[in-house]
């Protein structure tokens, strides 16, 4: 694979085209990439030509030569009339991004923003990306059939009419489908991102263009992060009555800054294990003043999102960030819950030697019976090539561990919490941080040894890659039904505590996704249902089933 960069130094002194050349046996395929959008988003030109080497003679037909000439002329034309567009294109393909060079641009907080409808109630990176974001959302809708079914069912009634939902989740095409579904169901929503790196700017633009209040962009600072959450909550004449959280940051902020708002809040729906821990702490301290539904421990979240999503996305994320060869690599996976199971299985299938650390003897026994060696991190940290955390806990990998790691060891996190790796301990004068590319930093010790830190210890797959849409459809549908359940529950059904999703709703979420596989459920006979002590329509598992 070779990269040919054509320049016009004499006239303009900047790069104007990229051509990627790939030789396969006796054939050479050339693909050209050009910036064709005024907002600076590069798109591949559907232009390909090939030629064959035969007896050291190059043979091109006239049509292919004509395409090549047209490409060069087009490059020159763009170079003359839109150099800014080209500079953005070059930045994109060189691995840079606006979010990585904040000192070179104006913060979205300092920009005057308005969509085509005249609305200014949002803060995003670039409203001009809305068309591309809308296409991504439409693509996600094709896979998220259950949410689309909820929209169709809501045409006659609005189960969330009167709901005012503040959300703090990842802002991606998948969560945008959830956001817009909640609106179709009758809710008013305001949204912020739960992760400073996971926002898809084009998706945020698409939501803002539809006049949805969204406050998120990729590469937020910590101050930006809390500012965006505050903009969702601190609104004159608008008070939330439902919270949809992923990590507990929205709930934390309201408790800290606006506790009076909980007088009108019907409940909280929390997706992540980190957020659930925070809710249980509030409950034990007697400070949880509204009911909450724990989506993270629902069967549909545990058995599908946590397992299948991570099993597929861990490999993609590691390839995109660190160009890793998996075969023969020694990897330690910290935690053998559903996320750890997915990561371990994927890496083992690719030929990696996988060690597992675990605190729970039941999960530890599962790891052993699945063929993994159970160990302590300190016992293998000197020899492994990768360390992956999947616990939702804090300080799983600390400075003492990282001081012992071999040169080039990759360290990353697949759990929800950004505290699993003690990144703050690495920000000391004797260590040098070297930014390599998007989501990749080298931390260099005085002796020259370095580790490779991915996504600054934040959740890797949503910081550097994407995840399977279909799996997220299951989780998003669970969240929507949990919101409907809490909002419409009669007074007294739920007290000030943390609840699991009713098993009937868990099974309903699964049933909404079966038709995409052309799957057909077997129905119990009356005799069988009576023998099992079940209703023919479910639920088929007890409430404690996980």
User: What does the main sheet amount to?
Assistant: 8 strands, mixed
CATH architecture label name of the largest domain: 3-Layer(aba) Sandwich
| Proportion of residues in β-strands | 15-25%
CATH class wording of the largest domain: Alpha Beta
Strand order of the largest sheet: 14-13-12-15-16-19-18-17
How many domain modules? 3
Give me the CATH fold name of the largest domain.
Answer: Rossmann fold
Rg on CA atoms, Å:
26 Å
Question: Averaged pLDDT, please?
Answer: 85
In whole angstroms, the N-to-C terminal distance is 48 Å
User: How many β-strands, per DSSP?
Assistant: 20
Please write out the topology.
Blueprint: E1 2-7, E2 15-24, E3 27-34, E4 43-54, E5 57-59, H1 62-81, H2 83-93, H3 130-143, H4 145-153, E6 164-169, H5 173-184, E7 188-193, H6 201-209, E8 214-215, H7 222-233, E9 242-245, H8 249-257, E10 267-270, H9 273-284, E11 292-294, H10 299-322, E12 330-334, H11 338-349, E13 353-357, H12 361-369, E14 373-374, H13 377-380, E15 386-389, H14 399-404, E16 409-413, E17 432-437, E18 440-444, E19 450-454, H15 460-464, H16 469-488, E20 498-500, H17 503-514, H18 526-532
Parallel strand pairs: 6-7, 6-9, 7-8, 9-10, 10-11, 11-20, 12-13, 12-15, 13-14, 15-16, 16-19
Antiparallel strand pairs: 1-2, 2-3, 3-4, 4-5, 17-18, 18-19
Helix pairs in contact: 3-5, 3-6, 4-5, 4-16, 5-16, 7-8, 10-11, 10-16, 16-17
